[in-house]
Amino acid sequence: MAQIGIVDGLEFARSCAGDVVRLCGDTLPGEGLVKACVRQNMSNLSKSCHDAIQQDISASVPQDGAQAKMTRITGLNNYRYCEIFLIGGNPFDLEGAVYNTTN
Prior knowledge:
By secondary structure, the chain is of the alpha+beta class. It has one domain (2-100). The chain is 42% helix and 16% strand. Strands 1-2 form a two-stranded antiparallel sheet. The chain is elongated and about 55 Å long.
């Protein structure tokens, strides 16, 4: 699953890098400025970039956390557990979910 996400991200980068440079090349990175510039120029993106964004929008993290409850667990010294991080969404708004084996 992680490999699929990386491949999709690389495809997005290949498809949109030229558009980002062409449309937002003078925008300084940081504080979401490049992302905002691309959003403002959605109608000017190439077809390949637009298609890559649409494909990434359809792939998101499962929304199974709506019923989740916060749990605090103490005393985990010398306790083995595993955490799994799922990152998904579209390149402009990533979402994340954390799963673990403690409870």
